[in-house]
Amino acid sequence: MQTFPNSAPSIYNNPMNDPKPSKKRFQQLRWRLTLTYTGVTLAALLTVELILLGIAGIGLILLINSGILQAQLIEAVNTDYAPILRFYLEQSPPDQAGIGDWLEGVGSASSVTLPLSFDATDEMLVVGSDSNLLAVRPVDLLGKELLGQPFDGHLIPGLADPLKAALSGSDDTESLYFLDEIDRKVILALPIWDEAHQQVLGVLVAIGELPTIVSQLADVLPILGVSALFFTIIAVLAGTVYGFLAARGPVERLNRLSEASIAWRQGDFSTRVEDTSGDELGQLARRLNEMSQELQELLETRRELAVIEERNRLARDLHDSAKQQAFAAAGQISAAHKLIKNDPEAAETHIKEAEQLTLALRQELTNLIQQLRPAALEGKGLAVALSEYCEEWSRQNPIIAELRVQRQRQLDLEIEQTILRIVQEVLANVARHSHASQVDINLIYSSDFVTCTIQDNGDGFDPETKDRGFGLQSMAERSDRIGGELEIDSKIGEGTSISITIPVNSSRRSTVEETDE
Fold first, then answer.
1. Does residue 187 share a domain with residue 116?
2. pTM (whole model) above 0.90
3. Which domain holds residue 395?
4. Residue 357 included in any domain
5. pLDDT mean by block of 10 residues, the chain; 517 residues
6. Rounded Cα distance, 83 and 141, in Å
7. What is the CATH number of the domain that holds 514?
8. What is the β-pairing status of strands 400-406 and 438-445?
9. What backbone phi and psi angles, to 5 degrees, belong to 399?
């Protein structure tokens, strides 16, 4: 068996079935891009809000650890609380009852609005300049028995040093507070000065919880929730509108590419995609335009080569058969002309031989004319064309030709023409050289391939030693051009079988070509 694999890429691709367009609007590319823009906008908004919350929480921690917040609180207390406490502490003796009543009201009427502002749950006490405990809130913090008695700052862990600094009139803010990292508390000792700022009248001690990110979020989340909902709605609407408008351009450009590809698939390589942009789609359009131009030039070249090939085949057929028969007929006529006077009977014999050669010449010319008329171009289809050609060929030659077709289907015109031409070429060789009495032609269609086998019971030949003629070379080239595979199986005295297998869809033909390369 001798095989002729495909060796040239094919540009005749079958139209592949396009996927059915989705009936769901939101599965279209435009709406997918629109929803993508919407989702990105919403995600960006939520990300920014989370980042802002994180920055606020980190900033709060940094403020507490740096002491800036405590300094601001001390300044605010001196502004809001010092005048009132000064009034009670300047009296002689200090008005303990008034201070106690004032402590109970701190938190509800306080104008201090810092994160560490005092409220009704904070622990507070007032110590006089003589270190006596004047008031405490809540009362059970230290016990009523300590009121009016000297107060030891060590009773409250962390208070001793800030209290001592406040009683001494220290202006160093960092010495007036203590941070309890374990219990998350801050202890402030705020000196209360007289009007002239020359004498410390007493100390206000406040013990409050350090604010945490969670506690701060609990205060701001309701506000942020409402604002986030409002901005989310605005962002969704804006993102949807912008996404829809922004998606129009790419979708229209892709539609132009799709329309051009349909035209190319149908063989119209003159179609061009108009896209002058410099982005990836523009570059793709220009490359596809270049590809279509090259395919068009290749198609024209192959058509020219096909014409040249057909001319060469006709020249060979005319030289091998028609010309030789005409030359032989002319020789017989010339011999008859010389003998007609001296030997009429011999001249008549030469004339009869010339008549037989003329009939054979006419039959050969008729065969060539039949091959020049591809039935597939007449809309009959490959099976019908082969059937009619086999009947006509059998009438012209003393050889029976039988055609069998399995699972007939429509094929590309180029495939049908190629198979028809190869069958014509094989039958011509059978008639000239094989001395066969029977030729069987099997045309088998499958989902991926079409196979045509021509088998005769003639003399056969040795494919390995016999010089391959123009006919075999022509058949191999025709098969190569559309990605087919030609096989020749012959033995001397056992006939010849020639088979061609051609992929019927473009994807398989492309795969075959790439594998061969």
1. yes
2. no
3. 390-517
4. no
5. 44 41 55 73 76 71 64 72 86 87 68 45 84 86 84 89 89 82 80 87 84 56 67 76 73 81 79 80 83 83 77 72 75 83 83 82 72 56 87 87 89 85 88 90 91 93 67 81 89 92 69 47
6. 25
7. 3.30.565.10
8. parallel
9. -135, 135
